[in-house]
Amino acid sequence: MNEELLIRLSNADAVASKESEVRDILKEEMCASSDEVMYDKIGSTIFHQRGTQEDGVKVMFCAHMDEVGFLVRHISEIGFLYLVTLGGVLDKAKENQRVRVTTAAGQKVYGILNVTKTDKGAVKEMYVDLGVDSKEEVAALGVEIGDMVTFDSHCTPFNRPEVYAGKAMDDRTGCYVICEALKRLKTLEHQADIYMAATSSEEVGVRGGKLATYRVNPDIVFAVDVANNPELVKNYANHRLIGHGPMIVHYDRMLAPNEKLLRFVKETAKKHQIPYQADMFGGGGTDAGSAHLSREGKLALVIGIPLRYCHAPWSLTHMADLEHTIELIVRIATSLTKEKYQEFISF
Q1: What is the mean pLDDT of residues 13-26?
Q2: Of 48, 66, 211, 268, which one has the greatest count of Cβ atoms within 10 A?
Q3: Is 136 annotated as a binding residue?
């Protein structure tokens, strides 16, 4: 496992439309395994590895680069930054948290995030204390309205070597997985044309998957994303346990997958003894939810990575889950053919 890559991806800062730190890491890691690199016009980056079959099936795996976070909305006269959220940051993650601001020049400025509340205890406003006392001192630090603010967490092993704690595991674990899968596929023969899409702006309306799908026009789309593990439940009701393998998602609010494709993925996992969890979401949604509505419709499915704690300063991920997700992607990619795809869409 490439733990150093996971650490770099988790520590990088990237909210919607400000994903250059993550994009640069992925380009550094994935270009050598790609025959072509493409972009859409919002910054999603697509790594193409050609297959051996002429006019072969086109398969896209996508993972989003952006994390939940904030933008500087207002700077007060006494030097406090007031914020707006990008994505569903948990309210309990907004109090007394260390954060970092990325300036237009790329400098990191550190502060403490806190909130004011309504009479009923709901979060009213979010503000960051930089330790200064005036708007002028804020300006001297290079901080401006519109700057990105992220949690100041640093990825590290968490008491045992197979578990890592860090920020932005939604969806830097997915970015890690598509990166390492593409490297392995470079050494293997596959008939399918493979596209690994690092998408923009998923946390603010699943935008990147839709546009990347239109750009590539694949036959099948797999979103490689995450789901939060209800950490106090470790019985039959929890299908998101870390260390128990990736989730093959049977349903969410935005997608009910093609039943033949779903069966194929489950059978592929069983054939190669890859542990998995069969999950469903009552709500939620991923890039697959918007991608499958592109053009005349696309086959799509979600492969999920279980996390403990999500949309917060810290998430826990299990390296075995990442390894098994990589293996599942590789096995899917090397098994798919044009003929198999035609079976899926034979209604």
Answers
A1: 98
A2: 66
A3: no
24 annotated binding-site participant: no
64 among annotated binding-site residues: yes
How many CB atoms neighbour CB 75 within 10 A? 20
In which band, very low, low, confident or very high, does the pLDDT at 229 lie, cut at 50, 70 and 90?
Answer: confident
Task: Give the pTM.
Answer: 0.96
Task: Write out pLDDT tens, residues 155-177.
Answer: 999 999 999 999 999 999 999 99
Q: List the domains of the chain with CATH numbers.
A: 3-67+167-344 (3.40.630.10), 69-151 (2.40.30.40)
Catalytic position from the list 19, 29, 202, 327 = 202
Residue 258 has pLDDT above 80, yes or no: yes
| Residue 225 among known ligand-binding residues | yes
What are phi and psi for residue 89, nearest 5 degrees?
-65, 130
Query: Is 244 annotated in some ligand binding site?
Result: no
